[in-house]
């Protein structure tokens, strides 16, 4: 009996020394006893960080920059979750408002990563999105039962990683032949969640966290006293990841928009607030209005269409590595002819224009474009189409990967050399792929990519198949 106690004390001291060496001070952790510090679930979480999170950090140290910054926040979020797991073992289960306040430190760490992905896309956008989307897996700790609106903890971790894997695969494709450190980072990030966090939750918290029945009560934010005569407080910000405020019934809130219009109609006093229109107020009798458009107005409107409100148009090579094409409107003769396989092309905010890329480039990204046409010969890594509407992209050479994300209306023209391309789609619709016919004088073959799927639970797992329509 004494031997086992000594072993548990030594294990607790070893873990506290490891935390101190890793930069976590004693004041950052709750007041824990030996029983809590040596709990198998806490020991296993330390192993999770030592075996998986350390690999992600080591790869990020070699890359540096924003990848290192986002990885530090990721490790910080994991440390916060460990602290919360320790507190849960000493705290009674709070109500929904108390739970949101209890999980606020974890939510703040997650929001830091989300803030890094906002604004203009950086060169490491896929790294930031992959890390940011993956952190939603840590929300498994908020599971309180089948009526809480969340999936079970194990399923939640898996679903959250599936959302992040789309951008993680982009990192693997972009850097598989360029920089092994980025590939190692992406692989380590995946293993942190699958199987790392998933197996941890499966072993220790398959039904969610276990709160203490006799522990202290969770602290809640004190309500602010209202001052007589003071102005009303501003409306609350949008709900965060761990928002626990239940939605109020519509009957308790004043109706707005069209709901208010229909409520007014139902009262019967529809015309009570209308003003009478006299003869001189009618359009046909007004002398200050005319239906003739002058030539000067036409020239003004046509000239203003060539300049975007977002900024001046750009077509330039930056730092010798990146072609930037921005805010081009109504330009049908854009050409990039002096390019090489080490350069990338970023097309942003263009409308009703056509760009030709006459040479091999490393990567092509088309972002927030409308009715844009892009013709290119060869791409080394991938062609990405993001947040676009009604675009046409033609590959005259080879392209190993084409990805379409959050796009409505996309026509892809493939050459014979690019028929083996891997096409990835997410949150997109109306995607058609045109391929050359077997005979040179025949028409192109058009194939639409499915956007509706049927999921059937069979033999212990879901089977997914695209919807097929037949005119029977």
Automatic annotation (TrEMBL):
Biological-process GO terms, alphabetical: actin filament organization; cAMP-mediated signaling
C-CAP/cofactor C-like domain boundaries: 312-451
Polar residues composition-biased segments: 245-254
Composition bias type Pro residues, residue spans: 230-239
Protein origin, superkingdom: Eukaryota
Pfam family membership, one: CAP_N
Low complexity composition bias: residue spans: 214-229
A GO molecular function held by the record: actin binding
Location of the region described as Disordered in the Swiss-Prot/TrEMBL record: 214-255, 281-313
Gene Ontology, cellular component aspect: cytoplasm
SUPFAM superfamilies reported for this sequence: C-terminal domain of adenylylcyclase associated protein, N-terminal domain of adenylylcyclase associated protein, CAP
Similarity comment: Belongs to the CAP family.
Name of the protein in its database record: Adenylyl cyclase-associated protein
Organism field: Herrania umbratica
């Amino acid at each position: 009996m004494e031997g086992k106690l000594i072993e548990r004390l030594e294990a607790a001291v070893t873990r506290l020394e490891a935390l101190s060496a890793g930069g976590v001070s004693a004041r950052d952790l709750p007041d824990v006893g030996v029983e809590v510090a040596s709990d198998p679930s806490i020991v296993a979480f330390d192993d999770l960080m030592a075996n998986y999170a350390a690999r992600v950090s080591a790869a990020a140290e070699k890359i540096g920059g924003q990848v290192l910054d986002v990885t530090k926040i990721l490790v910080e979020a994991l440390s916060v979750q460990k602290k919360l797991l320790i507190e849960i073992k000493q705290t009674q289960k709070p109500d929904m408002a108390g739970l949101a306040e209890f999980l606020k430190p974890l939510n703040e760490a997650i929001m830091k990563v989300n803030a890094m992905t906002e604004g203009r896309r950086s060169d490491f956008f896929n790294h930031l999105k992959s890390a940011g989307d993956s952190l939603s897996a840590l929300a498994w700790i908020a599971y309180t039962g089948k009526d809480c609106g969340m999936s079970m903890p194990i399923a939640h971790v898996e679903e959250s990683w599936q959302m992040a894997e789309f951008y993680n695969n982009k990192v693997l494709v972009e850097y598989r032949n360029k920089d092994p450190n980025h590939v190692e980072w992406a692989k380590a990030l995946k293993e942190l969640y699958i199987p790392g966090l998933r197996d941890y939750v499966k072993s220790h918290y398959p039904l969610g966290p276990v709160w203490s029945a006799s522990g202290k009560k969770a602290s809640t934010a004190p309500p602010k006293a209202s001052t007589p005569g003071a102005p009303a407080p501003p409306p609350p910000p949008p709900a965060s990841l761990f928002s626990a405020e239940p939605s109020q019934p519509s009957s308790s809130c004043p109706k707005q928009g069209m709901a208010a219009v229909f409520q007014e109609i139902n009262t019967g006093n529809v015309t009570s607030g209308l003003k009478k229109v006299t003869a001189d107020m009618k359009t046909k009798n007004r002398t200050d209005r005319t239906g003739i458009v002058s030539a000067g107005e036409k020239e003004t409107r046509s000239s203003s269409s060539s300049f975007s409100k977002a900024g001046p148009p750009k077509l330039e090579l930056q730092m010798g590595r990146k072609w930037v094409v921005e805010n081009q409107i109504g330009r049908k003769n854009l050409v990039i002819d002096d390019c090489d396989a080490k350069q990338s092309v970023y097309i942003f905010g263009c409308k009703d224009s056509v760009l030709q890329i006459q040479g091999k480039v490393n990567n092509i990204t088309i972002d927030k474009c409308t009715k844009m046409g892009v013709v290119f010969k060869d791409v080394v890594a991938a062609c990405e189409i993001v947040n676009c509407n009604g675009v046409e992209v033609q590959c005259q050479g080879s392209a190993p990967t084409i990805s379409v994300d959050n796009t409505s209306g996309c026509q892809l023209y493939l050459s014979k050399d690019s028929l083996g391309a891997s096409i990835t789609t997410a949150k997109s619709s109306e995607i058609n792929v045109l391929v050359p016919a077997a005979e040179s004088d025949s028409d192109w073959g058009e194939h639409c990519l499915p956007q509706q799927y049927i999921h059937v639970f069979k033999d212990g797992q879901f089977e997914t198949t695209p919807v097929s329509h037949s005119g029977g």
